[in-house]
Amino acid sequence: MTISIGVAVTPEEINVTSGTPTTTTGSATTQASGSSFLIPLRAYGDLYSAVTDSFNNTYTFQGKKQNTSDGDWLHLYLCQNGTGGASHKPKVTVSGTELVSFGLFEVQGAATASLDAVSAGVFDSSSPFGDALTTTNAADMVIGLFGSNGAAGTVTYTPGSGFSTFTGAGSSIGTNGLSFGVAYQVVAATGTYNPAFTVSSGNRGPALTIALKAAAAASNKQLLSMLSNQGGF
Predict the structure, then answer these.
(1) How far is CA 180 from CA 109, 165, 177, 191, 218, in A?
(2) Which residue in 13, 68, 109, 203 has the most C-beta neighbors within 10 A?
(3) C-alpha–C-alpha distance, residues 13 and 34, integer Å
């Protein structure tokens, strides 16, 4: 299997009560095993006490960046080699009561230990928006995130050349300025990549970029060895 996007649980803005695990109303059917999952979050506070999902996967914090002009945050969490299935939902717990926008994004065909690199994050106030990332592994999926401060209706996120919008994340309700866009590019060489978003509303926000490694394909030598051991030729 080559590395590819899976399904997404479209981001929602939800009022989260302090200490109460909260899931989105939407869900998706993900691959039973082996996928990597990303949970991005947007909020005006920095209060996340736990991030997991309906399959109790373990997520590790990858980075955060604040919109220093307006006070909102973008956080990113990653589960490598996770468990999936029907009715897969992200789950968030906060240490204070606040409005949070979050979703879940699946990457199929990633390595068991899939993390290659993650950017430090930037507060970007100049379009096109994004945080450039230099990969260290040739075969990667590069995923860029940007949270516009646009707060009027639906914000549409359009990535730059080479990047495609992650299914389910082309636009997000931004009535409270907590929307975010997610875009991806499958690359075959190390280099520096930037999702370069343009947006329909807003002129600044936080950005993060992450690169996940593709699983290594079995070599012809390995395949011949397997056939020989099984009496295949």
Answers:
(1) 25, 12, 9, 25, 37
(2) 109
(3) 28
Query: Cα separation of 19 and 92, whole Å?
Result: 9
User: CA–CA separation, 192 vs 181, rounded Å?
Assistant: 20
- The residues pairing with 104 across neighbouring beta strands, listed in sequence order, are 9
The one-letter code for the residue type at 179 is S
Residue 118, both tokens: 């993650």
Q: What pLDDT does residue 223 have?
A: 41
Q: Which two tokens stand for residue 17?
A: 């009560």
Q: Alpha helices, DSSP H only, in the chain? A: 220-229
- Summarised one tens digit per residue, pLDDT across range 80-90 is 999 999 999 99
pTM as predicted = 0.91
Amino acid symbol at 214: A
Who contacts 37 (Cβ-Cβ below 8 Å, separation ≥6)?
Answer: 30, 53, 57, 59, 78, 79, 82, 84, 104, 105, 106, 107
Q: What is the pLDDT of residues 10-33, one digit of tens each?
A: 888 899 999 999 999 999 999 999
Instruction: Please name which of 173, 114, 124, 116 lies closest in space to residue 145, comparing C-alpha atoms.
Output: 124
**Residue pointed to by tokens 């899931």:** 23
* pLDDT tens by residue, 107-153: 999 999 999 999 999 999 999 999 999 999 999 999 999 999 987 66
pLDDT of residue 173: 62
